[in-house]
Amino acid sequence: MTPEDDTLPLGETSEGQSGKSVLIITYYWPPAGGPGVQRWLKFVKYLPDYGIHPIVYIPENPSYPILDQTLLDEIPKEVTILKQPITEPYKLAEFLSKKSSQTISSGVIPKEKKQSLMQQLMLYVRGNYFIPDARKAWVKPSVNYLSEFIQKEHIDIVITTGPPHSLHLIGLQLKAQLGIRWIADFRDPWTTIGYHKKLKLSASAAQEHERMERQVLTTADHIIVTSENTKKEFVTKSEQPVTVITNGYDYRQLQDLNKDTNFSLSHIGSLLSERNPKVLWKVLGELINAHEDFKKEFVLILVGVVSDDVLNVIHQFIPKKNIDIVGYVNHSEAMTYQRKSQLLLLIEIDSEDTKAIIPGKLFEYMVAETPIISVGPKDSDVERIIKSTNTGRYFYYDAEAELKDYLLSCFKAFQNSSLTTNPIGLQQFSRKALTKKLAELI
Known about the structure:
With 442 residues, this protein is an alpha/beta fold. It folds into two domains: 20-87 and 131-249 and 434-441, Rossmann fold, CATH 3.40.50.2000; 263-415, Glycogen Phosphorylase B (Rossmann fold, 3-Layer(aba) Sandwich), CATH 3.40.50.2000. It is built from 16 helices and 13 strands. The protein has helices at residues 38-46, 89-96, 98-105, 117-129, 139-153, 166-178, 203-219, 228-234, 278-290, 292-297, 308-317, 331-340, 361-366, 381-389, 400-415, 431-441; strands spanning 20-25, 52-59, 80-84, 157-162, 181-186, 222-225, 242-244, 263-268, 298-303, 323-327, 343-347, 372-375, 392-395. The strands form two sheets. A seven-stranded parallel β-sheet has the order 3-2-1-4-5-6-7. Helix 2 runs antiparallel to helix 3 (98-105) and helix 9 runs parallel beside helix 11. The chain is globular. Residues 124-250 form the Glycosyltransferase subfamily 4-like N-terminal domain. It holds the Pfam family Glyco_transf_4. Keywords: Transferase. GO terms for molecular function: glycosyltransferase activity.
């Protein structure tokens, strides 16, 4: 397959000037929804401003768990897109159990005691027979196709981004065959991310994951990560240079929106089974029971996929009339909820393994002119960013009294029309500034 006809000649920027071409290998691309697609969509948007022409290689027939057709409008017209077919087991798994397949592929893994026999089987097969992940069958055909393209077009630099981490194996093999410069971008860690432990790995499968991870980390010419904690982990596993380039926000001119008339606390994004701070739901329930005005004004808004385990705990404490379950919305609608809400909620699993996880929505939260309430593990990257930018408050899972006091103070500020935020130092997280940092590595 050749590049699309309506793209510019390779190596030419949007201004018509000759520039460097870089091949970007990614699984997630519009119309995929969710946070995974945003990072490289925005890098591709701004790379031409720094004299770099991006060539994007994606699957022709991917199995995306979430779709957002509006993101198609954000693909720059000048970008070169390459596509090749992919064979994915999730499509086959849907014949056995569509609900279980879609649940697991979207990252919502039920607690072990509540997993059905089919879900347990799917997790075991996924972890032990599809190493490193379910897109492994795309590696060989991609290497065959891209090796010819790279030589024909004289491409010197390849970037792979994962998860899925099987895409790093494409970069690994291309470097071995062609000697090209290879940058590996890790949007999440590999063997230390939370869901990795839920894959029911055999000892040999776990060793194979670690072997692959070590090979990628020690062979890539440069490694990019999204958090300081991931960098700390990777520098113990590799002597290759590691650079932190976080996710960020993209400036766009938005119409003025009035804030919600009720005291809204909104969570936008997936709430996985263990992303479930019982302490927060308990505090909110107690405030509803103790304060009639709070009960009348408060609403918990859940935008996105929510695990049944989380909903069951929430319903133990918070009346249904104080909950608005919206479900999945496209990115544009999600940004509207961010800006209309009185408070924004960010939750991470209370685990050592999640300290390095920085949800992409954090950066959009920070520019939404809405205070953030975040609950997560101690010494996380999210805690550091929220505190350094003065965009909200961060709480640990045992901070019951502090949570209650802060929520009450926010409610009083809401009643007085003085609930605001005064952020500092946000420019460093703009997508254009982050792309400049990437361009300097290329």
